[in-house]
Design a protein that fits this description.
With 253 residues, the chain is mainly α. Helix content is 78%, strand content 0%. This is HTH tetR-type domain-containing protein.
Length: 253
């Protein structure tokens, strides 16, 4: 009995924390639904609060502003995206193959969840994160940092396969530059795939063939970096068919 009484304050605090976390997840889920319907700029906090069955004041107790809400949604989207990267980590193959698979899965996620990618994209704007709470923005930075480190780890481990030689600082710099270049490539295609401007210039070609376009671009980038493998383009496309095809086209186990 005495032990139960001593544990009671901790149990109450944990229960409150769980309730707060569950409410925050509800807010973010409904925010994603509203944004997919009306867009972020037309999102009204009062409508979101009503949809969640809470007061506006309670909602602001979780998210200090619309910008804070957007950062929170981007962090949630990033967490869902990061779960996909476990597939790359668990791939029974080379570090370069893992890097390729992670790049392809990144694009596949954006194609399958455009409203979540939009939140991630908008959340990078200084006009958004500068108005978010520091803790929320730091969570965003930590998450991006973890993903960047994962890609860098793959490239560092695959340095020999890429013909990256020299002393350690030089190898590290070359691998880091390759990571930055591949990030720009992948992120750029993510943006272009979901852009109306792209449709006006290329019709539906890029949208329909985005994965194959990224495959060829990745192969060219790796070949230029020194990757020596038989039929690099075919190898990358083979990994795409295995890991990044639409769900309806994925091979059955």
């Amino acid at each position: 009995m005495i032990q139960w009484m001593e544990d009671w304050p901790d149990m109450v605090a944990q229960n409150r924390m769980e309730k707060r976390q569950n409410r925050e997840e509800l807010i973010l889920d409904n925010a994603g639904k509203l944004i997919s319907e009306v867009g972020f700029f037309e999102l009204k906090i009062s409508d979101l609060a009503k949809m969640c069955g809470i007061s506006v004041g309670t909602l602001y107790g979780h998210f200090a502003s619309k910008e804070d809400l957007l950062i929170g949604l981007a962090v949630m989207a990033g967490a869902k995206r990061a779960q996909k990267f476990d597939i790359a980590r668990n791939h029974d193959g080379s570090a370069i193959e893992k890097y390729i698979i992670a790049s392809l899965l990144d694009l596949r996620f954006s194609i399958d969840h455009p409203q979540l990618f939009e939140a991630e994209y908008l959340a990078l704007a200084p006009s958004v994160w500068k108005r978010a709470t520091p803790a929320r923005h730091q969570a965003q930075l930590d998450q991006i940092g973890a993903v960047t480190e994962m890609f860098q780890t793959f490239l560092n481990a695959g340095a020999d396969a890429l013909g990256i030689s020299g002393d350690l600082p030089e190898r590290t710099d070359r691998a880091r530059n390759l990571n930055l270049g591949s990030w720009g490539l992948g992120y750029g295609i993510n943006v272009l795939v979901l852009s109306e401007i792209t449709d006006r210039h290329y019709g539906q070609e890029l949208r329909k063939n985005a994965v194959n376009i990224l495959c060829d671009a990745l192969a060219d980038l790796l070949i230029g970096a020194g990757w020596q493998v038989d039929d690099a383009h075919q190898k990358v496309r083979s990994l795409a068919r295995r890991y990044a095809a639409p769900a309806t086209e994925m091979p059955q186990p």
